[in-house]
Structures are given as C-alpha cells and as structure tokens.
Amino acid sequence: PLSPAARKLLSPEGFIDYFLEIRMLYPSYEEAYEVLEDYHEAITGRRKYSEYDSFRRQYTRVLEKQKRSPR
Questions:
Q1: CA-CA distance, 62 to 71, in Å (whole number)?
Q2: Cβ atoms of 55 and 49 closer than 8 Å
Q3: How far is 68 from 64, CA to CA, in rounded Å?
Q4: Looking at residue 28, what DSSP letter applies?
Q5: Would you say the pTM of this structure is higher than 0.70?
Q6: Helix, strand, or coil here: 70?
C-alpha cells in the first residue's frame, strides 16, 4: 500500500500542496514541478501532467476554486 504522503501526491490538490512546499528550494518553479513529476512517475509509472503549462492551468483552477469556496 502507498504511504499517506504518496497518496496525497496523486490528487491535483495534493500535488499542488507539495509544489507550494518545495518551490522555493529550486532555482525555478519549473524545476520544482519536474522534481514532483519524477516522484509521481516513480510511484505510478506515468507523469501526472503532460508538461509544466498543463500543471500551471490546473494550479490556477485549484486556486480559483479555493478562493470561491467558503472557509
């Protein structure tokens, strides 16, 4: 079975949460994204997103959804 941390990475929201945690550790956001993609691929055998721009579109959608939802 997958660890809770690995399961979190499988959802769009979890992937973004991890991205937000590690993004400042890398020279660019794209490099931080690629590190997560490598980890996701090691777990599932495939990439989560086809490319960085695809991830950015999902990132924007999730943030917009979070802004609209009541807290």
A1: 15
A2: yes
A3: 6
A4: S
A5: yes
A6: coil
